[in-house]
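Section 4.2 – Deliverable D4.2 (structural model, holo form)

The reporting period included a commitment to supply a predicted holo structure for the target in complex with pyridoxal-5'-phosphate. Inputs used:
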Amino acid sequence: MHQTIKNLNLINKELELISSKLPSIIAVSKTFPISNILPLIENGHSHFGENKVQEALEKWKNIKENFNHVKLHMLGKLQSNKVKFALPLFDFIHSLDNEKLAKKISDEQKNYEKKPKIFIQINLGNESQKSGIKKGDLKDFHLYCKEIDLDIIGLMCIPPVEEDPNFFFKELNQLNKNLDLKELSMGMSADYIKAAKNFSTFLRIGSKIFGNRS
Ligand SMILES: *Cc1c(COP(=O)(O)O)cnc(C)c1O
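Output (structure tokens):
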């Protein structure tokens, strides 16, 4: 059995111990060649994540045509001028964080049968170097997104590295509930157990499945 499949099985076993409703695991395959990813695809895994449009196009265009079960998630910063390339490829976008991008997606999605499912990224730690909208702007931003017909399914965060993520995961879960959103994108290799315990529905796990990125 391929190592990535073993790693994924182990993660699933851990998760089964802590919650009855298993979150979906997005295998974050950025920087890894498709040869490292194929075993998981052929084994039936559905959700994969990338953080750059150009890299994702090169790696996934053919794969997506050949494997219907594959769902691709855009996790990284999305430039408005890349939206027209991203929409045909990605099923989910986790990094919506400004009005210009929202408007662009709204305009472009009219060209396709299916709308992308979108998470609004929140900068919970108010870190200047990190993407995401501020907590205080969330309500208005969410309203705006609904007005322009975006399919907002939940919130996403990347907590500050040095701090206990529990605090931020709890807060994101609460903000999600306030807006009556159903999905929650939080938890990475270092903190997915904590995220699952805080009701995350999509864990974004890279190195724990594929190994360290060089
Ligand atoms: C790379 C990345 C991940 C996965 O990180 P790991 O620590 O390797 O699990 C998750 N989310 C985002 C937004 C990423 O860019």
